[in-house]
Amino acid sequence: MPQDQIQTVSTSTIKIESTARITLTPSDLELLFLEYVQMGLLFPHPHQTTLLNKNIVHHLKDSLELTLHFFPTLVGRLATARSDDGSATCFFLDCGHRDGGVVFIHAETSGLTVADVNESSNSGPGVVPSLFPLAGVYNKDGASHPLLAVQVTDLADGLFVGWTVNHLVADGTAFWHFLNSWAEISRGAESISKLPILSRDQVNLDLVGARDIYIRDEHLAMNENISADQSAAELSERVFRLTKEKVAKLKARANEEMEGSNGKISSLQAVIAHLWRSIIRCRSVAALEETTFEIPMGARQRMSPPLPDEYFGNAVFPGIVTLNAGKVAGNGLGWTAWQINRMVASANGAEKVKEFYSSWAKEPKFLQFDAIPTNHFILINSPRFDVYGNDFGWGPPVAARSGRGSSFDGRITVSAGLDEGSLDVEVCLLKETLSAMAEDVEFMEFVTVEN
User: Fold this and answer.
1) Is residue 204 domain-shared with residue 237, that is, in the same domain?
2) 62, 309, 391, 440: which one is catalytic?
């Protein structure tokens, strides 16, 4: 279905008053050159609900405005200040910017159903990318674009709520906190159950030794013009679903294969290893070629003292496992999962977080999805996030989908599935790799294809 069949009904800007100035940390700033994040939830139309007599789109807009009073960071703009000697730039979020506000778009289409979206595979000029606003905008562009835009699209038998957010504002933990709070307000709550902690000053003071971080011009200049190796047309997305029973079976097999693991290999580690091994097999990667799996590590509980879950910002640092492809393919599920387990275990301790933050402030290194080498995979999202609990008043969503923002060959998005204990894994890879995986008997033994 072409994008021009999705019509914009209205566009408005939600503003709230705020004077907050939000410092950015190394965990925020390393994302400066990435595209905005795009995620969305798919809902069938309500059958019996108190919202039936209201316009649901207006209700969502009103409840969003109420929620933003608790999350003023999202209504601001990216701002900068120059160092005294004019050689470096400090980036921060200006929540009281005169051009600030969250963009809210109401769109509609009569020719697209919930089933169409649920079964769509995002490949080529498909329907799902059209359900998100602000395509192709980068985090560094937050001075001239809203930090959050929401598009609610009326479908023939449901609606899709898609959002595009500047990643400098929030990591997955923080943004799902916001979404859960919005759903809470939409259901009729007068306040939210978990108030966000907005200030990031103390994090920088404790880990870097200064509130503001200035990035020298040469570090910014070398990251401005990196271009993508693959076009969007060469990439495809597919959702693989693992039932609770299959996840448990994978975890048990990984621990049985790896003597000495004592059951320490987690469900997620086993699933990642299973996926990683299939991709390497399907690509026929040379045995001596290196392959990398990057798993962002949560910094909140690793800091001393720990940061509360309510901290509203980015608090992650990279956890990286690099192995020869031959060892991944040949040593079995348990061995690969154990390498992931050992990396995660080695990242424990507040000193690891401080090392990342302080080192980054001295020598900034920006994450660039466009420059990621072949056979380097990055995990996005987490099964801990409450995705399917986002009931806005007429029932939970039936699917979650990513947009084209920050797509690359190797993006692995994982979330808790619709059924308790299940996992959804949305894989963005080259089309030929995904096609081969669908024929990989060892891989497909544990998964079903969502689309």
Assistant:
1) no
2) 391
Calpha distance 273→334 (Å, rounded): 8
Catalytic site residue 201?
Answer: no
Task: Say yes or no: 157 and 269 in one domain.
Answer: no
Q: Range of 335's domain? A: 232-449
Structure tokens, 409: 């060959």
Domain-embedded: residue 135 = yes
Place of tokens 């109401």: 106
The sheet carrying 423-430 orders its strands as 316-324, 290-298, 376-380, 411-416, 423-430, 235-242, 448-449
The Cα–Cα gap between 101 and 266 comes to 41
Choose one of 165, 197, 221: the last residue of a domain.
221
Q: What is the full per-residue pLDDT of the chain (451 aa) written as tens digits?
A: 444 589 999 999 999 999 999 999 999 999 999 999 999 999 998 765 555 445 899 999 999 999 999 999 999 999 999 999 999 999 999 999 999 999 999 999 988 899 988 887 544 446 888 999 999 999 999 999 999 999 999 999 999 999 999 999 999 999 999 999 999 999 999 999 999 999 999 999 999 999 999 999 999 998 776 544 455 558 888 999 999 999 999 999 999 999 888 889 999 999 999 999 999 999 999 999 999 999 999 999 999 899 999 999 999 999 999 999 999 999 999 999 999 999 999 988 889 999 999 999 999 999 988 778 899 999 999 999 999 999 999 999 999 999 988 889 999 999 999 999 999 999 999 999 999 999 999 999 999 886 5
Please check whether residues 215 and 130 belong to one and the same domain. Answer: yes
Report the distance separating Cα 3 and Cα 159, nearest Å. Answer: 16
Structurally, the chain folds into a number of domains equal to 2
Domain identity same for 391 and 250: yes
Extract the runs of DSSP E, i.e. beta strands, from 65-113.
77-82, 88-94, 102-108
Residues 368 and 268 in one domain: yes
**186 and 238 part of one domain:** no
- DSSP 3-state of 51: helix
CA atoms of 56 and 161, how far apart (whole Å): 11
Strand partners, 316: 298
